[in-house]
Amino acid sequence: MAALRSLSTAASRSLLRSSTSATPLVRATAVACADQRRQITTPVYGKPTTAIPDFSKYKSKKSETSNKVFGYFMVGTLGALSATSAKATVQDFLVNMSASADVLAMAKVEVALSSIPEGKNVVIKWRGKPVFVRHRTADEIEEANNVNISTLRDQETDDQRVKNPEWLVMIGVCTHLGCVPIGEAGDYGGWFCPCHGSHYDISGRIRKGPAPLNLEIPAYDFPDDDTLVIG
């Protein structure tokens, strides 16, 4: 036990001596760091390190007004170029989105009225749909005008459906489910839809059957007495 006690005492003394000898080294390191910090803030060549560099030799020799004029000119030029580019882009987009020549050709259809005898129908294809054109007789016009519109499902007078009483122009598609009615047929001497039994009169108005509306009237005009333009 005495031997162990002596060894422990010797080890403690040795550790104390080593820590005492390391203290000057730590102090020396701290002094060196402080000196380094002092060197960073020490003036260089007689000038403080925080001085702002002189950029005067890079400044323009022209007057301030000339510089402003040049700046405004550059801004205006870039703005004009940007506007021109934007205009060209929008124009190209609109040209690409517009209808082609063949589509525009189908937008309007001309019909020679002299080729349609009185009391007869013709069917014209317009925008992929059939259009009925009927040259009505005087009796048919009188019959269409004598109908009591209060009894109609879709109440329209004959005058509201025609621009010229002799000519009735309608889209030949049943307003029920889109079938094509048969002309000069049905209970009212007009058109009859064979799909579900809708009856239209000589003015194209629904009189009987499941169709909810009259036959549709397209946009049309008479440029002269012998020409009908649909569309």
From TrEMBL:
GO molecular function: 2 iron, 2 sulfur cluster binding; metal ion binding; quinol-cytochrome-c reductase activity
Record has Transit peptide as a keyword: yes
Record keywords, A-Z: 2Fe-2S, Disulfide bond, Electron transport, Iron, Iron-sulfur, Membrane, Metal-binding, Mitochondrion, Mitochondrion inner membrane, Respiratory chain, Transit peptide, Translocase, Transmembrane, Transmembrane helix, Transport
Enzyme class label: translocase
Catalyzed chemical reaction(s): a quinol + 2 Fe(III)-[cytochrome c](out) = a quinone + 2 Fe(II)-[cytochrome c](out) + 2 H(+)(out)
Record text on cofactor binding: Binds 1 [2Fe-2S] cluster per subunit.
Superkingdom of source: Eukaryota
CDD domains membership: Rieske_cytochrome_bc1
Pfam family name, one: UCR_TM
Miscellaneous section: The Rieske protein is a high potential 2Fe-2S protein.
Name this polypeptide is given: Cytochrome b-c1 complex subunit Rieske, mitochondrial
Species per Swiss-Prot/TrEMBL record: Arthrobotrys flagrans (Nematode-trapping fungus)
